[in-house]
Automatic annotation (TrEMBL):
InterPro entries named in the record: 5-nucleotidase
Record-given protein name: 5NT1B nucleotidase
GO terms for MF: 5'-nucleotidase activity; magnesium ion binding; nucleotide binding
This protein's encoding gene: Nt5c1b
UniProt source species: Climacteris rufus (rufous treecreeper)
Record Pfam families: 5-nucleotidase
GO cellular component: cytosol
One GO-annotated biological process of the protein: nucleotide metabolic process
């Protein structure tokens, strides 16, 4: 599809494939040895990385869209966005072909940061294993997250893309989180009830949730609501009774539907995510990411909002 019609997901090579050993060679022996190792092993298929099953699920959605709308270009386009050198490209291409992935567009920047290219590629979502690059992308206004591998192997749905989002500082701005951190929970509950009818400002991943919603509506239009290959989840530490109404009213004011909303009132997110088995779970707080990881969820950290300041100071 043409970039202006597509939902472009840019994925780094370390998010798509497991390059832990290669990364170790790069850090310990330098770039020349790393390139040499990759060239010597270009016929050895790379193992899946944290974004691999998410990308596979995007491709399944594309296949279903093409059946229903053969001439429509509004679908996912995955771009491999990496600061690898072009000499490493053959191994990446061989691995992509081995798994039957459709990744036609590569951006290999030879050691330079790829962030400048994200805008040129009209990127809707950027996933990387490099937290500094993700931070750079977030600051450039691009929906981005740092990918973390799950600590257990889980079987993911191959017929439905499942995406789970935290609320504050992910879909919504961090305005409410600021009150929790600076003034405490009681003041937060009071603030949310007073502002129940005032929509929250948007957060960095609101646009990607919108993109998913747009594609869902294409399935609904063909009477495929019950068989839709996309399902979205809000998994929030908020309590439904005291601070849930504002969240639901905000989504409604944006014209967005979310399939399932889980208000955990401060309970851990990991056990709920085990039941959902999302291909990706976005959260702004590292302790939620770590809790999800431990129980086998592929989690993606969104470095946005006030929680980052508190995370860095601990």
């Amino acid at each position: 599809p043409k970039p202006q019609n597509a939902i472009t997901v840019a994925v780094s090579s370390r998010a798509l494939f497991n390059l832990v050993e290669e990364r170790r060679i790069y850090e310990e022996q330098g770039v020349e040895k790393y390139v040499e190792y990759q060239q010597n092993n270009e016929n050895v298929t790379l193992k899946p990385g944290p974004a691999f099953y998410f990308v596979k699920a995007l491709e399944h959605v594309n296949a279903r869209l093409l059946e229903l709308y053969p001439d429509d270009e509004e679908r996912f386009d995955v771009v491999l966005m990496t600061n690898n050198h072009a000499q490493v490209g053959v191994r990446l291409i061989n691995s992509i072909n081995h798994y039957g992935l459709t990744i036609e567009r590569f951006c290999m920047t030879g050691g330079e940061s790829p962030i400048g290219y994200l805008t040129a590629y009209l990127t809707n979502l950027y996933l990387s294993a490099d937290s500094d690059k993700v931070q750079e992308a977030i600051e450039a206004g691009i929906a981005s997250a740092t990918m973390f591998t799950a600590n257990k192997d889980v079987v993911y749905s191959d017929t439905q893309l499942r995406v789970a989002f935290d609320g504050d500082a992910v879909i919504f701005s961090d305005e409410s989180e600021q009150i929790v951190k600076e003034q405490g929970l009681d003041r937060f509950f009071e603030h949310e009830q007073l502002n129940e009818n005032k929509p929250l400002a948007q957060g960095p991943l609101k646009g990607f949730l919108e993109d998913l919603g747009k594609l869902q509506k294409k399935f609904y239009a063909k009477n495929e609501r019950l068989n839709c290959p996309i399902r979205t989840y809000l998994v929030t530490a908020r309590s439904a009774a005291s601070s849930g109404a504002r969240v639901l009213k905000t989504l409604r004011s944006w014209g967005l539907e979310i399939d399932e909303a889980l208000f955990l009132a401060g309970a851990p997110k990991g056990p709920i995510l085990v039941k959902i088995r999302p291909h990706i779970f976005f959260d702004d707080q590292m302790f939620h990411i770590e809790g999800a990881q431990k129980l086998g969820t592929i989690a993606a950290h969104v470095p946005y909002g006030i929680a980052q300041k508190y995370h860095k100071s601990t």
